[in-house]
Q: What sequence folds into this?
């Protein structure tokens, strides 16, 4: 605690980097995963191919991805771009599965009714399928975001930046209070952001809170 | 691309596999950490998940614990542990076990709580005790979800055990950490490829386990055979 | 078939067949014309093809062969979205959008057609009222409504853009008996003012006979008979139709005949306040101060009323009134609920006989 208070500037700077590394991939991942999931949801072959590829991508430990990507992309190991690409791939792969499952929960009768009423396909997806899929999606999103935040601190081991630096520094200089400060800060960050996502989800789905 | 060729060459050299610090040894260490951590996590998470899923009480506790543990930076806990309690496998294993608990707990709880309430109700009506209901109805039906939780936990533990090498422990992470530290990138690549391969293999095995455990499909072939040969007289 | 030239045909099936990908033939060579402004019912058991036939009208299902014509145009040549925006559709279990308030559910089609949300919502209130729903429900979510209320919203939604054609796919099967009768009455009432072309699918022969101007009986994809309800009852085309209508054909027929011309008989009445100490010869009807029947009295004990015959009742209700009465005489009331005369079972049967002869 004491450590945190005496190193607020450092904390702020590292937090910004950490959140950028953790959250930007989530946004990018969503931008990839949602259209992809929508496109393959009803195409059995494409869907199986997509989920299989996604499975492989998110099974590979990100640390391994951090190391392998420079070879493929020509980036350097510690380039921020390297980290973002690695985490985006990981996040997109996880989210594709989550979005597909969330879309599957939309009742067939509702989709049928929407089509029969005269909803054009794209309008139906935007105004019916996706909104109804949000509650399930939020659950998946929470896990992804919190995991990403933890992942970035794992990456500190190879020096990618973020609050994980306090762990490695504290370890190397025998300062356990630095490590504790890092743990507390990261824990709080994760809890707060998780809470924000839940809140956003509730705001976006007023019908789930309607009481009979 | 030089690194890739060097890495492949390294992997293909048998000598690099043998010996106390060879690939095989590191692989074994990695598997060992993973297995122990998962075992410990399961010991805590599965019974807890079974009880809470069965009684449906304390759901808030489960959700809270799962979320809290997921928010805990394993890296920090691991390094703190080593700093406080010295080098040795124990702090690492504790940190890794804590990492594995959320997925196992969530999977077990969701699996048991998600069993068709009509089936559970029918079992009770037949006269089964609560323990019997758990053993004969809930667990078999929850098995895919429990194994699914194990699958997720395994992925995370294998991935993070890689980092345990930072605390001067063994495992495949050694190649990664040392490779980066000593600027021998091809070694880091070897480590990365090995860990990726390990993760994929373990995931494949567990995926098959999830598939096989699906209830009512007879995939585990548990149905007792009937005696066919009695004649009607 | 329909009287040629009496009303133009809104929907025409011309030798339409539907074979699904797995080989099942859902509809076989269907040729049928649905007249404009009338309520036509497709009836049959599950798998008879009635729903498939319905869904070919708004192209939710494409025919394998043959043509479906709506409003003079082959549906295959019309843009499906435009077609559906012009046809109202009510499904079983309402199929309301759970994430939208009732008012927005009702306003769906007008908004899709380009109306502003505000204008569509304002108009939707009127439609809600028309289907008998309180405006209070407009801001609720579907999950907060009962099954019957949800179905009414479903009907309101289908009517909102005032389409000339209404398709209803077993809309009342998911609600209980009492609610179902209310909803059936509601449809008849609406139809009396709106005169839409309605195609209604059900597996319930009673519902079909109650609602229909014409009934199309389906079995295994083949049209068995297409006639008004009276003809169906008096002249079933084959054994299947006769069997489908089932036992009680005769009683059902009674329901179709108005009791307006039924002669009423005299019944001794006693005012409620004079009840203690009354000595009627036989049964007497106890009447309250307003003139409404309250019960029966036979000199010793008081008994409850059986069912009543109201001004818009049919012969089946007249007979039921007589049979359910403790005295054996039914009670007929006027629109205000005041007693107007007794109903004798013999008179009902005489009326049936006269009709059969006449």
A:
């Amino acid at each position: 605690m004491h450590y945190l208070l005496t190193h607020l500037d450092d904390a702020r700077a590292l937090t910004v980097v950490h959140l950028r590394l953790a959250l930007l991939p989530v946004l990018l991942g969503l931008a990839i995963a949602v259209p992809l999931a929508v496109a393959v949801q009803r195409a059995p072959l494409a869907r199986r191919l997509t989920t299989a590829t996604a499975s492989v991508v998110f099974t590979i430990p990100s640390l391994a991805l951090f190391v392998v990507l420079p070879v493929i992309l020509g980036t350097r190991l510690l380039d921020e771009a390297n980290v973002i690409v690695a985490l985006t791939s990981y996040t997109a792969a996880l989210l594709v599965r989550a979005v597909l499952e969330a879309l599957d929960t939309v009742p067939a009768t509702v989709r049928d009714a929407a089509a029969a009423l005269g909803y054009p396909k794209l309008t139906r997806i935007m105004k019916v399928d996706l909104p109804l899929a949000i509650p399930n999606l939020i659950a998946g999103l929470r896990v992804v975001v919190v995991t990403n935040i933890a992942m970035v601190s794992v990456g500190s081991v190879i020096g990618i930046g973020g609050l994980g630096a306090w762990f490695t520094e504290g370890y190397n200089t025998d300062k356990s209070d630095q490590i504790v400060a890092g743990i507390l800060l990261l824990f709080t960050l994760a809890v707060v952001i998780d809470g924000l996502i839940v809140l956003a989800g509730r705001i976006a789905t007023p019908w789930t809170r309607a009481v009979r | 691309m030089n690194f890739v060729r060097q890495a492949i060459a390294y992997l293909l050299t048998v000598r690099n596999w043998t010996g106390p610090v060879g690939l095989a040894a590191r692989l074994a260490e990695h598997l060992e950490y993973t297995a122990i951590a998962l075992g410990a996590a399961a010991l805590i998470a599965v019974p807890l998940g079974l009880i809470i899923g069965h009684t449906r009480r304390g759901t808030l506790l489960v959700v809270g614990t799962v979320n809290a543990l997921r928010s805990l930076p394993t890296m920090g806990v691991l390094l703190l542990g080593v700093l406080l309690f010295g080098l040795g496998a124990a702090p690492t294993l504790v940190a890794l076990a804590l990492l594995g608990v959320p997925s196992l707990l969530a999977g077990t709880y969701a699996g048991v709580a998600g069993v068709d309430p009509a089936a559970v109700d029918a079992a009770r009506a037949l006269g089964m005790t609560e323990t019997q209901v758990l053993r004969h109805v809930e667990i078999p039906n929850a098995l895919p979800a429990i194994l699914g939780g194990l699958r997720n936990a395994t992925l995370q533990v294998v991935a993070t055990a890689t980092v345990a090498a930072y605390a001067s422990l063994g495992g495949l992470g050694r190649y990664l950490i040392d490779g980066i530290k000593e600027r021998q990138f091809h070694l880091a690549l070897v480590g990365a490829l090995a860990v990726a391969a390990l993760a994929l293999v373990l995931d494949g095995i567990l995926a098959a386990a999830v598939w096989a455990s699906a209830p009512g499909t007879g995939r585990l072939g548990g149905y007792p055979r009937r005696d066919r040969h009695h004649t009607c007289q | 078939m329909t009287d040629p030239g009496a009303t133009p045909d809104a929907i025409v099936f011309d030798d339409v067949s539907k074979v699904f990908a797995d080989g099942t033939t859902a509809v076989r060579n269907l040729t049928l014309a649905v007249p404009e402004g009338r309520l036509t019912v497709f009836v049959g058991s599950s798998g008879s093809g009635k729903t498939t036939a319905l869904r070919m009208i708004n192209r939710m299902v494409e025919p394998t062969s043959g043509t479906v014509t709506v409003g003079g145009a082959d549906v295959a040549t019309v843009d499906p979205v435009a077609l559906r925006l012009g046809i109202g559709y009510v499904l079983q279990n309402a199929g309301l959008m759970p994430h939208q308030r009732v008012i927005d559910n009702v306003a769906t089609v007008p908004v899709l057609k380009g109306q502003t949300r505000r204008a569509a919502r304002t108009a939707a209130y009127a439609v809600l009222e028309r289907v008998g729903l309180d405006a209070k429900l407009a801001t609720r979510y579907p999950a907060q409504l009962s099954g019957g209320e949800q179905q009414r919203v479903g009907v309101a939604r289908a009517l909102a853009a005032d389409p000339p054609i209404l398709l209803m796919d077993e809309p009342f099967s998911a609600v209980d008996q009492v609610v179902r009768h209310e909803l059936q009455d509601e449809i008849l009432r609406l139809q009396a003012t709106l005169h839409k072309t309605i195609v209604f699918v059900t597996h319930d022969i009673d519902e079909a006979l109650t609602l229909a101007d014409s009934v199309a009986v389906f079995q295994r994809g083949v049209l068995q008979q297409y006639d008004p309800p009276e003809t169906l009852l008096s002249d079933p085309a084959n054994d299947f139709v006769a069997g489908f209508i089932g036992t009680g054909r005769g009683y059902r027929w009674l329901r179709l005949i108005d009791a307006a011309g039924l002669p009423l008989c005299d019944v001794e009445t006693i005012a409620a306040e004079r009840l203690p100490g009354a000595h009627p010869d036989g049964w007497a009807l106890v009447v309250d101060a307003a003139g409404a029947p309250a019960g029966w009295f036979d000199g010793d004990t008081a008994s409850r009323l059986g069912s009543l015959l109201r001004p818009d009742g049919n012969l089946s209700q007249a007979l039921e009134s007589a049979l359910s009465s403790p005295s054996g005489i039914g009670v007929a009331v006027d629109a205000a609920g005041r007693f107007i005369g007794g109903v004798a079972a013999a008179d009902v049967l005489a009326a049936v006989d006269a009709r059969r002869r006449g």
DSSP finds nine helices and no strands in chain A. The mean pLDDT of chain A is 88. Chain A touches chain C through 21 residues (CB under 8 Å).
